[in-house]
Amino acid sequence: MDISRTKYILRSLLLQGFWNSRKMQNVGMLFIMYPYLFKLYSAYPKFLRRAIQRNLETFNTNPAMVSFCLGAVMHQEQVLLKVQNNLDVFYEQEKEWVIVRSSIASTVASLGDRLFWSTLKPLSLVFAFTVLYLGQVYFLNDSVQVKDLSTIVLYALACAFLTYNIPVFITRYKGFTLGYEGNEDNFFGLTKINWNKLITVLKTIGQGLTLFVFIYGLYFYFAGVVVDVDVITKVILLSSFIILSVFIKKWNIPNIYLYLGSVLVFTLVALF
Amino acid sequence: MIVLTRVDNRLIHGQIVQGWLPSLDVSEVLIVSPGAAKKEFVKKMLRLSLPGGYKLAVLEAQEAKKYSEVSQEKLFIIIEDIDNLFKMLKEGFCPKVITLGNTQFSEGKKQYSQGVFLSDDEVKELKKLGIEKHISVEIRSLPNSLATKL
Amino acid sequence: MILQLIGFCALTALLELDTTYAGQLLISRPLFVGTIFGALTGNLFLGLQIGIFTELIFIDYLPIGGALPPSGNIIAAMAILMNHFFKMDIYFAFFVGIVCGQIFSFVEKFLRNKRAQMLEEIDKKLIEIKTTPGKIIFSNLALEFAAVFVFLALSVMIFGPLFSYLHQDISEKVHVAFKFAYYITPWVGLCGLLLSFSTKPKED
Hints:
The structure holds three protein chains of three kinds.
Chain A: H1 5-11, H2 26-40, H3 45-55, H4 66-82, H5 87-139, H6 149-181, H7 195-222, H8 229-248, H9 255-271
Helix pairs in contact in A: 2-3, 2-4, 4-5, 4-6, 5-6, 5-7
Chain B: E1 2-8, H1 14-23, E2 28-32, H2 34-38, H3 40-49, E3 55-59, H4 61-70, E4 75-79, H5 82-90, E5 97-102, E6 110-111, E7 117-118, H6 120-133, E8 136-139, E9 148-149
Parallel strand pairs in B: 1-4, 1-5, 2-3, 2-4, 5-8
Antiparallel strand pairs in B: 6-7, 8-9
Helix pairs in contact in B: 4-5
Chain C: H1 2-20, H2 30-40, H3 44-57, H4 72-85, H5 90-127, H6 133-166, H7 172-196
């Protein structure tokens, strides 16, 4: 069956449109599948309701990688349609449908959370920082007379936006095709990419760039500062907070509590 | 050695990989799920969702209990549902703490946290564990979220 | 001013949809919201700073498995609105932003549970094809937009005048305390950023 990828990928942007704590993205998933189900079961209305019910079950995955699931579920729907005349086989296949749907969902949820949320999202931020820093060096150079710093900011934002969204949309398109054309034997194309390696490479790049930003930032902050008691106190306080922030990670305390705590402590110290 | 025992119907997902694994010192993840143990496809999917540095075993309840005793690895046990947990306990499985992460909603179950739904019978049985076997049962989704005693 | 405030609240509410419900293009990330709002209120670099600080302070807070971090979008937007419209010092505005973000995460949690309660009926209607998932999703988006808008409008109406009223009485020392805590955030955040790229769990 010929289907328009773009249409389904655009619909998939609303996957979490009815996020709820009971069945998570179930309504969203049905929303994406809706036109497909109507098209597929147009000649078999009595199967349509069952299909809707099936597609409305609990669903949760990483939105950026949902298209792997989408493609695979569409593929499985076609398998089901083929065996609809033999009810025993149909029920058996429907169980299979559930297994395929839920295991791909959790796998791409895990991969997607690691790749997009905890790697690419911070990485795109670091890219923006790098553009901001290097932009200043480049643009503030005497030979390139650009007085407008806001241009650099614009570039940095564009960089953050694109470095996150281009991979997301490539994954959305590619994943859809792989899932749709794949089957259980080739794991719906998920094994074609070495995800762990990809994540490691991106994380290493992230580490390097963050280190650069950190050191460059310190240099920027302290360049030209005359060392006196005030500065030394600041440096000591700052470094103790940095050390503290690493330390509290052991108890999984997020940084925000460190900020709120320091507000409280400083205010109390200041007042008494 | 068992580091943590968790009931989670979603098996390996974001909370596990991003929340628990970085903060625990474990070397192997043991999945207790009869359904998954039977199917190559599901096993492969589970392997894919886990970072490469961890070992993975997928077993059904009885084997899992035996495996947890003989294994030399630092184990993170993830049990698919309450039924399989009870099956393991019946076999003599006795961890110090059981963490409830996600259990599926079905008719007649009450909600105890964002992802934990339990029937009254299950709650009764779980509470008994504390008294009879000194196993404490807590509801907790992530290492940095608060644990509530059942 | 009131019209402008309404406009900004509406824009924030619209952007908030991107965080969870529609798109996830990250246009609602604080880096963007801060900078855009900064540019609109005529202080691009302050906006950029707020954006970066918010982004960094929440770098170790992951929205995994339905966990609910405070909305960076609301924090950045509130901080800038407070600073621009009520002349609140940026370090106080940032704090107020964080407080609002935190409160909003309770509102959001409430809404998610409310939807879960409605689910049974909705599921039934959907299966009987009495309604379409599109209708449900779009009405939910409208509801979410309205909720965020009302929340922001209320927060602005409470915190803005409250600050104007208290402003005179805040001692210089408290200013210093808030300022220092504010300037520590990016460094602590950068550290968190570095740790977030740690390859434990071992990827291989």
